[in-house]
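Section 5: illustrative case.
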């Protein structure tokens, strides 16, 4: 399944990605898979296709939060994300819930001009979907992309490594200030973190404004400010919360929530993405898509 998706991803964008990604376990489900915390069939957090996949054994109870030698939570390991329907639509719509918990209706509180832009992107400019051009996904979207991620950690840094697009984040956890100049823009932004008890709080600035939250045209500007909270629950579960502010796009702050479940896949795989390729033809008028011209 995964191999098939990767080969198609090199020539796919938007609509094709939607159809394929919806079949992949461990991403964006509204309810946890069977088999215990984060589990697909056959164990916690599986990508599928592992021995014992047809069995419905309950996962063993999760132990307490693991600790580093300095006593801080040890978040290391491999993780899958559950963020509702976020991958497809960040805003709740059509009865499918996204990750937004505030506003209570789950809908992005766009300013009128931003709402018009989001509508135009969704209806006429899906060929601009950033991941179709092999861009990294930005924060918070990077946290719920397909195929999971790995955390490597020591007392002063947490490194997050994704299979998708070979993305990564290097997050200081010792409370240091931001090091990147305000006019420098990065796809995954500039992150710096500190501990509040067992909760890792990460402040994210300096994003590009070129990423979307989903495959539906919901977007942010380069003024977006994200404050993330990684909240360990037990050895197999991390609750995630983020507050998003963007004065150019939204009328008020947004709060989202999701869950990371410990996974049982063995390693991050080689990922290949070829920008555009032939599938962008599906977005031209001649192919029954939008009227946008593809260059």
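Designed sequence:
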């Amino acid at each position: 399944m995964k191999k098939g998706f990767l080969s198609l991803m090199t020539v796919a964008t938007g609509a094709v990605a939607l159809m394929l990604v919806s079949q992949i376990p461990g991403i964006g489900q509204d309810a946890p898979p069977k088999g215990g915390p984060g589990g697909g069939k056959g164990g916690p957090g599986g990508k599928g296709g592992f021995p014992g996949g047809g069995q419905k054994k309950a996962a063993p109870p999760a132990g307490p939060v693991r600790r580093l030698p300095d006593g801080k939570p040890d978040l290391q390991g491999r993780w899958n994300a559950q963020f509702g329907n976020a991958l497809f639509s960040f805003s709740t719509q059509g009865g499918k819930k996204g990750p937004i918990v505030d506003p209570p209706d789950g809908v992005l509180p766009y300013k009128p001009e931003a709402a018009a832009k989001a509508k135009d992107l969704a209806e006429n400019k899906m060929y601009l979907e950033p991941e179709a051009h092999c861009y990294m996904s930005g924060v918070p979207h990077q946290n719920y992309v397909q195929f999971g991620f790995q955390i490597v950690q020591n007392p002063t840094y947490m490194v997050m490594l994704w299979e998708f697009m070979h993305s990564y984040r290097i997050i200081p956890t010792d409370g240091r200030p931001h090091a990147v100049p305000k006019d420098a823009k990065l796809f995954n932004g500039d992150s710096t973190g500190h501990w509040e008890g067992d909760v890792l709080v990460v402040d994210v600035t300096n994003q590009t404004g070129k990423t979307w939250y989903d495959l539906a045209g919901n977007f942010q500007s380069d003024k977006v400010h994200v404050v993330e909270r990684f909240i360990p629950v037990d050895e197999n579960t991390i609750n995630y919360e983020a507050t998003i502010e963007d004065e150019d796009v939204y009328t008020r702050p947004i709060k989202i929530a999701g869950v990371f479940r410990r996974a049982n896949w063995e390693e991050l795989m080689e990922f290949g993405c070829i920008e555009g390729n032939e599938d962008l033809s599906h977005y031209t008028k001649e192919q029954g898509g939008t009227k946008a011209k593809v260059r």
